[in-house]
Amino acid sequence: MTYRGKLHVIASAAGHLFELYANGSFPVFEAEWKPSWQISANKFSKKYYMLLQQLSKKASLFVNACDYDIEGSVIGYNIIRFFGDIKRAKRMKFSALTKDEILKAYNSMSELDYPYINAGIARHYVDWLWGINVSRFLMRSLHKVSKKRITLSAGRVQTPTLYEVISKEFKRETYVPEPYFRIKLTVTLGSIPYSFTLSKIFENKKDAEKVAELLKKGYLEVVKVERINKTLERPPPFNLGDLQAEAGRIFGFSPYKTERVAEELYLEGLISYPRTNSQKIPPSVNVEEIIKELGKGPYGFLVSKLNSMVVGGRYLIKQGKEEDPAHPAIYPTGEKPGKITKDALKLYELIVRRFLASASGDANINSIKVVTRVHPLEYVEELNFQSVVNPGWLSIYTYTQVKSFQGYIDIKEGTKIPISKVSIALEISKPEARYTKVSLLKWMEKVGIGTEATRGNIIEILFKRKYLSQKGKYIYPTPLGISIVNVLKENFPELVSVKLTTEMENMLKDVQRGKIDKDQAIELVKRKLSEYFTKYSNIEEKIGLALAKPLGLVKYEKCEICELEAFKDKLCEWHFEALKNLKEKINLWKIRTGYSEGVIIKKLYKSSATGIYTKEVIKKYFLDDVSHAN
Predict the structure, then answer these.
(1) Against a cut of 0.70, is the pTM above it?
(2) Inter-residue contact 245 to 262 (CB < 8 Å)
(3) Higher pLDDT, 627 or 454
(4) Which pLDDT value is given to residue 406?
(5) Would you tell me the crossing angle of helices 437-447 and 240-251 to the nearest 10 degrees?
(6) What are the structural domains of the chain?
(7) For the segment 235-252, what is each residue's pLDDT rounded down to a tens digit?
(8) What residues act catalytically?
(9) What is 263-303 written as a DSSP string?
């Protein structure tokens, strides 16, 4: 195309055209950039490589217009330095693929963004050195004892993430719930029966029974009534992590799928750049124009709702706490969707509704707090009721629901309300929830490992390597995943540590901030890896044997319940821990409930809170006829 009298040629990079490479030696401390089509399965990139190489010979100016993030900066920089001239290079920065945004970025080009380039190169080297060396020592160890070449991998982010899943799974699946008792009361508020559970927990059944008996003739005395008009603030627009969490909750999308679909919407020009950590929309984004354009399409009814809440015709976006120096929060551009997939349309509407909700009004909630004294025992209980007075943003972002009490509460201080019904319930403690892909991604965000652009893909790699499996929405570790973690935890505990990975992330951020040189960061990692490998040669065979066992490549003593290696008393570590926990908790159950051991065992076997390994131990050693427990 010709623009301002000059011929401009726009060509796609199709991702990384250059990747780091080294020969098959081990350990590896030096690498070079080579064309990806020569060294990986990325063969389709050859035609892009050849075209860019040819076009660059006649270019007078090189413009990196890749995504404005670390990866985009490295992709463009490598192409320019290997094919062109970095002295004749510029950088475009934009957050949406609309005509206005592109022209604005072209007319305000800057020098190459070396903070991002240096941070990206450092990250590539650090992750590559870490991954290739640890992966090669795993595969080399396995080959030494089995003569089999099987692809195994580990990484500075991947491995601590796997370890976290397995650590939680170990606690959960060897879990034995503990019993306790609660008392439920029913009263009548006006003409409406209302039930609630006392906050007091009773460890022993006899204590609960004594209290319940007294309460059968008791009443609630209203000590205080507090009516509060609460504001439920509208949410900020999405960043990628929030979008992944909501798409997982509402549609069941995995984080990786959400990222891929969001990328599809971005390339269609329908939303801004999705790989952002920001929850803020800067003044440079023309919010009024975007909302005006959205009002002309199928979301006009939402814009009408929004306009009914806006004072003075001014849209004030709720700004969140999180910031990203490169990109704003995710917002719709106002362009009309063409032919896009059903999943893309779902995600697009979610983004539109969240954006409009962030510009709308806060919701108003009528809240009533009733403080009561439970006679004759003088317990103080707080009853809370709420109803939505003005839905505000909730009418636009309908994916969020507020539970409302249906009825009018007219209670005055000093009122005495008879207790009409008393019942005792056996309750049991529950383990932590098992990870889903979304909750695992949120954990990665919380501890600060990985980036917005990499977390979803890292989780998918763990599935691809068969270290994790999925049943429904929940994640389960495989025997191979457990063995990989056990090997590294026993021999190189730092490699499974979040602490080490977080330190590396902070170091890479310091490269981006210009606090340390990229070469310094790379040398630090080389020294750290070198320390590990001086130890490696002495335990190579031991590591290989540990890895070969779950793959069925060598014989070993198996647990008498499962395929894992026997740890103690003919049981693997998981079943051994479950049996130990079970024996301890059976005595606790007897003291608290007065139940016989047979009744306790059957209740535990039926309970969904009891770990799978605990149930298998019960089945093996405690139930003569498991069918009696069903």
Answers:
(1) yes
(2) no
(3) 454
(4) 65
(5) 160
(6) 2-112 (3.40.50.140), 125-174+433-548 (1.10.460.10), 179-233+363-428 (2.70.20.10), 240-358 (1.10.290.10), 584-629 (no CATH)
(7) 999 999 999 999 999 999
(8) 273
(9) HHHHHTTSB--S--------TTS-HHHHHHHHTTTTTHHHH
